[in-house]
Amino acid sequence: MEHKKETHQFKAEVVKVLNLIINSLYSHPEIFLRELISNASDAIDKIRFKSQTEPGILAKDTELRIRIIPDPKARTITVEDNGIGMTRDEVVENIGTIAQSGTKAFLDAVETMKKKESIAPELIGQFGVGFYSSFIVAEKVTLVTRAAGAKTATRWESTGDGSYTVEETTRKARGTAVTLKLKERSEDEPDYTDEWTIRGVVKRHSDFVSYPIVMDVERDEPLADVEILKDSDGKPIGETTRKVKREETLNSMKAIWARNKSEVTEEEYTEFYKHISHDWNPPLEHIHIRFEGTTEYNALLYIPSRLPLDFSMRERKHGIHLYCKRVFIMDDCKELVPEYFSFVQGVVDAPDLNLNISREILQQDSLVRNIRRNLIKRLFDLLEGMDKEKYDRFYAEFGPILKIGIPTDHDNRERLSKLLRYQTTSSGGGYVSLADYTARMQPDQDAIYYITGENAATLQGSPHLERLKEKGIEVVLMTDPVDEFVVQVLRTFDSKKFTSAEKGDLSLGSVDEKKRHEFGGFFDYLKEELGDLVKDVKASTHLKDSLACLSGETYDLSPYLEKILKATGQKTEPAKRILEINVDHAAVGNIKFLFEKNREDPLLKDYARLLFDLALIAEGSKVEDPARFSRTIGTIMAEAITAEELIAGEAIEV
Ligand code: ADP
After folding, report:
1. Using a 6 Å CB cutoff, which residues line ligand 1?
2. How many CB atoms lie within 10 A of CB 23?
3. Which of 132, 278, 508, 523 has a CB 3.0–4.6 Å from the CB of 537, allowing a cystine?
4. pLDDT tens across 551-600, in order?
5. Ligand 1 center from residue 83 Cα (angstroms)
6. How many Å is the Cα radius of gyration of the chain?
């Protein structure tokens, strides 16, 4: 058999990521050990799970464990496991490359976070670049692995400078050993071959790993009395102890979800959260539940304090870990919570679960469905019970995800609607619930007025809200694309109808019939002049100070929804809108006067267009011909100023 040593180049992204890790994480070197232990633990999870259906796979090597072997003389540290191991192809696939999307997301995240040093360590675990953190401390990394059931092993080696080698080798047992040749270190840097340094790191980051992390340690053991040489006075001569080596387990392996709440400290909850989530921030909240009844199970769920950076990535692996009698079954068990709770992390341990269950049939399993129902209920209880300050912090991070539940979970829609929070025209930037809103509605108000758009500040100043504001009516400002669907699905809250403040007529008293009649001819002219731009021109029920605004009919798409649909590549027929004119505005009166005096006046054309453009600008849209707009305004300004100066009698003498 050929034992060829091949040299491969890392992909360009890998080199980039490698350099980034080394440069951005040198201040947190110790995490390399957590990452290697975590990989070892995953590899053992895999074989343990497989052994449930293939009992022979463990062979004689049934004591699953992770071993740390420091060698102070050689300046190496090895992390070894008897997990599933890797074939040669798997080594090249897993170690030589990084999940494509992961790399891109990682690089992007680093780019945006560059200045915030505190973000760095959390990036590592989340983006699946864990193995490469070895190069923070190592000048050379050697991995020797033998896959379960394989005869030969593979040796991978790299100095992290752009290439790696792979060759066939032998290894006595199944599993993987990763050996780091440590870089030179200065006096004040930690020594990762030192027993106490290693113990400290393991305790800090890997205490909850569910397999023993063992290490041989040397201890002074007292000699037996008969072994000690003594002088004539009975005083010992020479050594009274001898050095012995023994294996010690460094982690406590506490399955804290299986313990009683009263036995677990807050610190332990937090540490465990960090362990499963790879998040360096403490969680916002946790719930630890033991369900007893027809079936029993434990659940320990956490709500993070921040939305993870990689939240929208498909390969994200966190979420809820499913165990059966402490045997790990799968991570990120999506069937246990709905999408709108997908940010929840934790563990569910269900002893009655069928171990052979596959992801595909998990959804139909009645026990899983039962657990899911209960978890949802408990999560609702948790959120409803939070004080305002905490809930606001929660909502700022996860509100947009929570809202996904409104269109998707019919059964919990009402409960979810109570958890919604919005800024409003009178909330002063704060967030209020819909219940707060309805509680302070005007006595004769029977609708919840809302307006949608990209940002609250623009919405706050929208001309559509002028009449409503005048009447002291609060308007909900909706700035999340999902909100469009939320109102469409909810339709009402507390039997009050959601009513768009920018569509249709507001039932706030109608325009004076006489005025409507007076303006009829002028509006016909505007409609003809603007042609295809508008569907109709009419007197506004929204406006007080502005001249004009554009509105849709009740069932038209809102301009914001139109924009969203366009952005997602959907074809929409741009809805022609109605130009609403403020018939009480002096400027409108003047233009009408001009129209009645001389319909042929060339200025009229400009004014007609200007009314339309002003309406566009007020809602944050772009005017089609900005140059023309600017020219018209210039002309008007020139005239206005001249007129004023003349009145004041201060015309400039030439
Ligand atoms: P992550 O663990 O986040 O996927 P890593 O870069 O740390 O990213 O590891 C890449 C892949 O290499 C792992 O997903 C796993 O398939 C494989 N791997 C790493 N270490 C081991 C190990 N000790 N045993 C078996 N496979 C491993």
Report:
1. 35, 39-40, 43, 81, 83-84, 86, 94-95, 128-131, 176
2. 11
3. 523
4. 877 667 777 777 777 777 777 776 788 899 999 899 999 999 999 999 88
5. 11
6. 35
